[in-house]
C-alpha cells in the first residue's frame, strides 16, 4: 500500500517532516495535519489496533493506523475520534473524528487483484522457463523456490506441455495472469543518475544482508538497452532506510528509486547475477517486462516491446 499516493488521492498535499512524522496539508482549508504512520497491514481489527497503539509514551502523538481495510468496529472507533486510521478499501482517512474521503476510484497501480491464493510457484516456473528455456529436476526447483516437490509437481501439471517450444504463448499467458510481486513499497528520490542511485542502494543492501535484486529501468537497460533509465526498482528481503545516503522519501509516482519487500519470494530463485564494480543480481526478464507494461514512464511501451522480442527470441537469456 502506497501511503503517500493514497493521501494524495484524498486531496492532501504532502510535506515530509522531521523524525518519523509525515505531515499533510489539506488543500481547501490549509489546515496542517501531522501523522506518524504505522506499517500498513492487510486488515485493521481490534487486536491489531491495540497492538499498534500500545507502545505510546506520554505526550507522544497517537499514530495513524494504516490498513488495506478495517472492521466495522474499528471504523466506528475512528469516526468517534478515538483513533486515527487510513484505509484503501474504502479510500478513507479518519483524523480526530473528521472523515476525509473521495468518491473517485483509487488509481490502479498494479494488476487487478484476484481472489484465491496467488500462484507464486506456477508463475515462478513460467518465468524460469522463459529465462532459461528448460527446468532442472523437480527436487532442485523445489529447493530453490523453498517449496515442496509436490507443490512444484502440481504447478507443472497446470502448465501441461507449454514450455520452451512456445515462448510467445507462455509469455502472454504469464503477463495475463501475474498479479504482481505484492508486498510493501517505499519510494525514494535523489538527484544523482538513476544508475548511481542503484549502485548506492545495492551496496547498502548487501551490507545489511537484504539480498537485493535490481529491476525497473536499470535492469531493462542491462538486458535489452533501449531507453535512458529514469526510475530504478530493487527487491529486498526487508525494509531499508536510505535517508542517510543522499535520498529523501517520496511518493511512488515521483520516486526515482523504489524499494519493495515482495510477497512473491520466487524472485530470488529466478534472478540472475551480473558482475560489476558492485555485484548486481537482476530480476528475470519476464518480471521486468511486466513492470515496464505497468509503468507510466516515458518510452516504457517501446522499451517493453524491445524486451519482449528479446525474450521470445532467446536473446534475453
Quick recap of the structure?
This protein is an alpha+beta fold. The protein has helices at residues 3-9, 46-53, 72-79, 120-132, 138-145, 149-159, 167-177, 194-207, 216-223, 267-270, 285-293, 300-312; strands at residues 12-16, 22-26, 32-35, 41-44, 64-70, 84-87, 92-95, 98-101, 184-189, 213-215, 232-235, 248-249, 257-261, 272-274, 280-282. The chain has 3 domains: 3-101, no CATH class; 120-177; 184-312, no CATH class.
Radius of gyration: 21 Å
Low-confidence stretches: 103-115
Distance between the termini: 33 Å
In N-to-C order, the SSE pattern is: HEEEEHEHEEEHHHHEHEHEEEHEEHH
Largest sheet: 5 strands, mixed
Total count of domains: 3
Shape: globular
Mean pLDDT: 82
* Beta-strand residue fraction: 15-25%
Helix and strand layout, with pairings?
Blueprint: H1 3-9, E1 12-16, E2 22-26, E3 32-35, E4 41-44, H2 46-53, E5 64-70, H3 72-79, E6 84-87, E7 92-95, E8 98-101, H4 120-132, H5 138-145, H6 149-159, H7 167-177, E9 184-189, H8 194-207, E10 213-215, H9 216-223, E11 232-235, E12 248-249, E13 257-261, H10 267-270, E14 272-274, E15 280-282, H11 285-293, H12 300-312
Parallel strand pairs: 4-5, 5-6, 11-13
Antiparallel strand pairs: 1-2, 2-3, 6-7, 7-8, 9-12, 9-13, 10-11, 14-15
Helix pairs in contact: 4-6, 4-7, 5-6, 9-11, 11-12
